[in-house]
Amino acid sequence: MGNALLIPRNPHGSLEILQEKWPKIYGRIYRVWVAFQAFIDISSPSLMEEIMSSQKFINKGEVYDPLLPWLGEGLLTAKESKWRKRRRLLTPAFHFQILDNFFDTFNKNADILCQQLHRSLSKEGELNEREIEVFPFLKRCTLDIICEAAMGIQVNAQLEDSEYLNAVQKFSLLLFENFFSVWRLVPRWIFFLTTKGKEYKKSLKVIHDFTSKVITDRKKEIDQEIEMKQTEGKKEFEFESKKRRAFLDLMLIAAKEGADLTDTDIRNEVDTFMFEGHDTTASAAVWFLYCMGTHPEHQ
């Protein structure tokens, strides 16, 4: 089993071992065996920069395969040839000038975040000084932002319970547990007969249903926009380049104008950006707050 039995199956315990304990013992780069697979663990910014900025190491290893039922071949998991083509298509959607147009969205949801944090600390009108886990608050905030800024929809995850967010959390945890368990070694159909296998399929359906509805709704709105413009006397409809366009809009418009994008391709990218756009951003924000909290002289 290699080192697998030394790694806890919960995210907090495993990260403590992999990112804190072992780097102190073995250094910033070391090898771990999980059964017959070798993994190189890196916790050095300079080494990470070499990998992340490389145009050579683009294809992901098979460790990413469990994400394929969820994200398909989106930007995160796509092979090099598809990745380059899709990257060229999608990069303009995240140009700084376009992002500048969404500061009202960022600020509005940041205000709601502050209100939610303050409310969680308040007790009978008096501020109760105690520690709170901020990650769930930040995940809901970043989900609201990515949905509005990139998908053109409002889900109000900070103010209402989000079935999508709950499904993402449950599915992510199942993926993590599965990676360090014996279920990795058995056929998938056997896993799907178990309780956790059924939870896996149920959560995946909720996630795909949600993103499919987002795409369908935006498609209808764009079609209505085209019809309205054409009834105004424009024989050929052209999309205004200066108008604020969400990431999803740009993909749907590109597909209408002949880009090599199927409905499945669009859903894969939406799933990828919905997940990466809220989860990793929330993680970065948590670390920022941690750094500020442990270095008060910089606050």
Structure notes:
The protein starts with 10 loop residues before the first helix and ends in a 5-residue tail after the last helix. Strands 1-2 form a two-stranded antiparallel sheet. A two-stranded antiparallel sheet has the order 3-4. The protein is mainly α and about 300 residues long. The chain has two domains: about 1-55, no CATH class; about 60-299, Orthogonal Bundle (Cytochrome p450), CATH 1.10.630. Helix 10 packs across helix 11. The chain has twelve helices and four strands, in the order H-E-E-H-H-H-H-H-E-E-H-H-H-H-H-H. The chain is globular.
**How would you sum up the global shape?**
globular
Topology as H/E string? HEEHHHHHEEHHHHHH
Distance between the termini: 46 Å
Tell me the strand order in the biggest sheet. 1-2
* Alpha-beta classification: mainly alpha
Strand percent estimate: 5-15%
Keywords: Heme, Iron, Metal-binding, Monooxygenase, Oxidoreductase
Organism: Daphnia pulex (Water flea)
GO molecular function: heme binding; iron ion binding; monooxygenase activity; oxidoreductase activity, acting on paired donors, with incorporation or reduction of molecular oxygen
Protein name: Cytochrome P450
